[in-house]
Specification:
The structure holds 3 protein chains of 3 kinds. By secondary structure, chain A is mainly α. Chain A has helices at 2-40, 57-63, 66-98, 104-110, 112-116, 119-129, 136-143, 157-185, 189-197, 202-230, 234-239, 251-259, 264-294; strands at 43-44, 52-53. The chains are: A mainly alpha, B alpha/beta, C mainly alpha.
Chain lengths: 295, 429, 277
């Protein structure tokens, strides 16, 4: 008994030492900046005027700013289109790689390549692929006779949107596949054997066995992808710069453009909105998880 | 202990040493007295700057490092703002688009240019743009102003006289020529200009509105809903929808390059563009080589013809650690010889008036005479620190008029309202 | 083989081919362009001429500063990965072995903080770094990168450490080792592969980071490769795709090789991280 009490007191002292560095980093470099941004959003903070407290005026101005709503719409649309595509396609890839076939290890290994390449770099590769004059995309369209003339991908709103979805999908679909693959491989094989004995068809096996067992992993994948996709910045900066005409400006890019113009108050307000959206999504998930656990 | 244990101790020690090396402020930007010059542009432009920098180094013995920036001007602006906002020692000298000087000056990022005589430069520009609180804070090294390109051969062929001096004349001449030319070239248009939703649209608008139009500052308010502006918007709208002498994609796609290539393919009679297009129009392979001439833009019904000022200015950072040498460099770039080299190598029209009378230059580029006249009438956009926001609002509403979605009176009123809200936020102390 | 099985084999085969093409084609296109004299080599008229001049230009040009960007990236990523792994190990050890209050709260705290968007941090981070005079230095990136990669490192290491039986600890403690000594001399060697994978992941994440580097650095004395390549304008003529792709190739080939060599470790780490969350 006394040993155990000593142990827990000693534990606490040790724990303080062990936990201090991580708490320092997380607080000083994440918590403090976020709080600072929140505070800044309540100020008029530009480079040519003294800092002035204006309360919620930045938010009111955002509400009246068509550019803000445009970026919000684009961000939501982008998430709504790309995340389902990526998770579904990732699921297909995961299911393929889950099967046994020659060179399966090699194929699985290639799933890592898109993730290992920096987003800014893959952004430029796709910028070339979607180039009007000599990009591979127009070349392929020409070869497969899918289009009469070369498509001006990055110069048109829809083309730019499509190009961004493809670029994002390239990077994240394999990553989703990796996560889902782990989920798939944790499903015991005997369940499938049993299902086969029970004369369940391929489709039935998928919908009645695979999907339900994958649900927790799928939810995590969807959630994380959504939160990441909401923040999208890297490729947009590289591929379209937010254009044409501001049609592919995400909320992150919108806020960044204001930061980089010296308007920290307004940019902070926009980034707080994004923060609130991301946080409500994660709270929704965490609360859902808590509810599920109690049930 | 175990072999693994001591290996990890070693590893740990290496990390700590490595970290100390990383975090100690070593390799901090360079020698004192070295001038870091940040400039962006197309790669061939940057090559020309390299040469100029080398010439300066040879003459003065001052070491200059050229920091190449992207050619995208938004990225250049962001890079400069981040550096200056962070009060970095580098860059010491940099180029600013004329539209940024207001922001930079008001943010107190520009070092006053002492001992430099501003009289050789275009007076209007120095007054409106480069003077802040009575001090000279920048110099124009590249003058740009909107002008009218026209097909002299077509005007002669159809016997419609010389270039139009009013917008009404332009409309009637264009309609006449276009009707006839359409029989041969169905895609021919009378007048191409920049109507897409971007900064260039505001430049065009100001020129349509003329010297009495544009942004009127009265009692800390911005007045946009004036007769001249309404007339200008009606005209811009009618060019597309009523007279049909400007292509339907004017307000969706037409920017500088689109207008230039359209005209260069021989598909337009008049073109509003910047002086840069002249060289391209006269280059080998251009369908309009030898058939083009330039003129000041037409004037509106009331007021004089106006050209929107563009171009680049050079400034010194207030946080520079090499101010003396930076001033020397600025003086060199903005000097007679420096500017002459720039126009010969880069095609950059000088900010110095005296160069427009230089005999060598006039021999090679006789159109410089005409340019000088156009530049004398060049007016800058409002030199206010929140100009970008004002421009964003204006662009949107002007483009909406061109897209036939709003009528001019309403658009100007709405723009005024939004700008008033902007002023609330960005001017009250 | 039943009809169903035959269809399944076909589908899996097609899927495997698709997956391969999907993951590899942009990568190969990048390499092909880097080595090609003409960017428009896909046109039937243009012949494919191999050249190493792009790579040479990128590695030696004084005005592009690519080697400087590479050096900065490697140094910053190594430093932040090292600090992050070390810090996370300490915390993971405490979480899996020590009793202290608010443990679940702490884990939730880390989870929540990991979901903060970068853009919501970078504004005030800039103010902080600017106040410290650290803009455009290496340390201005190392500190945020450590904080940014910590959650991932923590989860992975917690999952690794929790699989190490506490008997090992007890043995060391009985010998009179301090808790830290146990961590250093017993846990680290045993968990070495896990620690290494975590470091690898942290390195890759730090290496690929873009927004902080874009906002907190301004020139080649501290800029990293992703920013350098994003803003790459080249030396002559129009956009020099050959050189951009050469820079991209030089950057990604090592990272891809490392990822492929350690792929099992990395995948295990990534899935632990995600599943744990």
């Amino acid at each position: 008994m006394p040993v155990k009490q000593n142990r827990s007191e000693g534990d606490r002292a040790d724990a303080f030492g062990f936990m201090f560095p991580i708490l320092f980093f997380m607080s000083a470099l994440i918590m403090v900046p976020v709080l600072g941004t929140l505070a800044d959003s309540l100020y008029r903070d530009v480079t040519y005027l003294p800092r002035k407290f204006i309360g919620l005026e930045n938010y009111l101005a955002l509400a009246n700013d068509p550019a803000f709503w445009k970026s919000l719409r684009f961000t939501f649309l982008f998430v709504a289109v790309s995340v389902p595509i990526e998770v579904c396609l990732g699921l297909c890839m995961a299911m393929v790689v889950n099967e046994a076939f020659p060179f399966r290890g090699f194929v699985r290994a290639t799933l890592l390549i898109p993730w290992a390449v920096p987003m800014a770099v893959s952004g430029r590769v796709f910028e070339l692929i979607f180039n009007y004059s000599y990009g591979a995309a127009n070349f392929l369209l020409h070869v497969f006779d899918l289009s009469r003339e070369p498509v001006n991908w990055l110069g048109s709103e829809i083309g730019a949107f499509a190009a961004l979805v493809v670029t994002d999908a390239w990077k994240t679909t394999p990553f989703a596949a990796i996560i889902l693959l782990a989920g798939l491989s944790s499903i015991p094989g005997e369940l499938y054997e049993q299902a086969k004995i029970d004369r369940a068809s391929l489709v039935q096996r998928f919908f009645r066995l695979t999907l339900p067992m994958l649900k927790p992993v799928l939810i995590v994948a969807f959630l994380f992808r959504t939160i990441q996709a909401l923040q999208i910045f890297d490729y947009i900066y590289v591929l379209t710069g937010g254009g044409p005409g501001g049609s592919t400006t995400s909320l992150s890019l919108f806020a960044y453009n204001h930061f980089a113009s010296g308007d920290f108050g307004y940019g902070s307000a926009a980034s707080v909105i994004l923060f609130l959206i991301a946080m409500s999504l994660s709270t929704f998930y965490l609360a859902g998880g808590a509810v599920r656990r109690t049930l | 202990m175990t072999h693994g244990g001591s290996l990890y101790e070693l590893g740990l020690r290496c990390w700590l040493v490595f970290l100390l090396c990383v975090l100690s402020p070593c390799c901090e930007g360079g020698e004192p007295g070295r001038v870091v010059f940040s400039v962006g542009g197309a790669p061939n432009e940057l090559d020309a700057w390299e040469e100029l920098v080398k010439d300066f180094e040879k003459e003065s013995g001052v070491s200059v490092e050229l920091l190449r920036q992207p050619s995208d001007s938004a990225q250049q602006r962001q890079g400069l703002i981040v550096s200056l906002n962070g009060k970095l020692r580098n860059p010491d000298v940099f180029l600013m688009d004329v539209a940024w000087v207001g922001l930079f000056a008001h943010s107190e990022w520009l070092e006053p240019l002492r001992n430099i005589d501003p009289s050789p430069y275009f007076e209007r520009v120095i007054e409106d743009v480069d003077t802040f609180r009575g001090e000279l804070i920048a110099l124009p090294v590249y003058m740009d102003g909107g002008l009218l390109y026209f097909r002299r051969d077509l005007l002669d062929a159809y016997e419609v006289g010389d270039f139009p001096s009013t917008w009404e004349e332009l409309v009637s001449v264009s309609s006449k020529v276009q009707a006839k030319k359409r029989e041969v070239e169905p895609g021919f248009y009378g007048f191409v200009w920049q109507g897409a939703q971007y900064e260039g649209l505001v430049c065009n608008f100001l020129e349509f509105a003329g010297s009495q139009g544009g942004f009127l500052f009265r009692d800390a308010q911005v007045i946009l809903d004036t007769a001249e502006n309404r007339r200008a918007l009606h005209l811009m709208h009618d060019l597309i929808w009523k007279h049909g002498i400007s292509p339907p994609n004017t307000y969706t796609e037409m920017r500088e390059e689109q207008a230039r290539t359209y005209f260069q393919e021989g598909q337009a009679l008049f073109e509003r563009n910047w002086p840069y297009a002249w060289k391209l129009h006269q280059a080998d392979g251009s369908r309009v080589k030898g058939r083009v001439d330039i003129a000041p833009l037409p004037a509106p019904a009331t007021g004089k013809s106006m050209s929107t000022l563009g171009g680049w200015h050079i400034g010194v950072s207030r946080f520079s650690d090499a101010k003396e040498n930076s001033l020397k460099f600025v003086k060199y770039v903005a000097s007679y010889e420096g500017q002459k080299k720039m126009i010969l190598r880069l095609g950059w029209n000088p900010g110095r008036r005296d160069l427009y009378e230089d005999q060598d230059l006039l021999r090679e580029m006789p159109f410089l005479k005409k340019l000088a006249v156009i530049f004398l009438n060049a007016r800058s956009r409002p030199v206010i620190p929140y100009y970008t926001q004002v421009s964003d609002v204006s662009q949107r509403w002007i483009n909406a008029v061109l897209a036939d979605r709003v009528e001019p009176h309403k658009a100007l009123q709405n723009a005024e309202e939004e700008i008033a809200a902007l002023l609330e936020r960005y001017t009250t102390k | 083989m039943t009809k169903e099985e035959r269809i399944k084999k076909l589908v899996v085969g097609a899927g495997a081919v698709f997956t391969l093409l999907f993951c590899l084609s942009p990568f190969f296109y990048m390499i092909l362009t880097a080595l090609s004299r003409h960017t428009d080599f896909l046109r039937p008229e243009t012949h494919y001429v191999v050249t190493f001049s792009h790579i040479h230009t990128v590695l030696t040009s004084q005005s592009i500063h690519f080697p400087a960007h590479l050096r900065n990236s490697v140094v910053v990523s190594l430093a932040s990965a090292g600090v992050a792994v070390f810090t996370a190990s300490l915390a993971a050890y405490a979480v899996t072995r020590l009793a202290f209050p608010l443990k679940t709260f702490f884990m939730l705290f880390v989870l929540a903080l990991s979901m903060f968007p970068e853009i919501s941090l970078v504004g005030y981070l800039f103010t902080i770094m600017s106040g410290l005079g650290w803009i455009n230095t290496l340390q201005t990136l190392v500190f945020p990168y450590v904080a940014w990669t910590l959650p991932l490192c923590l989860w992975i290491l917690v999952s690794y450490f929790s699989q190490i039986p506490e008997d090992l600890d007890r043995a060391g403690l009985m010998d009179g080792c301090s808790r830290f000594g146990v961590l250093r001399k017993i846990i680290f060697p045993v968990a070495a592969p896990g620690v290494f994978s975590t470091g690898l992941l942290a390195f890759i994440v730090a290496f690929n980071e873009f927004l902080f580097a874009l906002m907190l650095t301004t020139d080649h004395s501290a800029r990293t490769v992703p920013v350098g390549i994003a803003l790459f304008q080249g030396l002559h003529g129009e956009t020099p795709w050959g050189e951009i792709m050469a820079a991209a190739t030089v950057t990604t080939i090592p990272v891809v090789l490392v990822a492929l060599i350690f792929q099992r470790r990395i995948m295990r780490g990534l899935t632990r991280g995600a599943v744990k969350a």
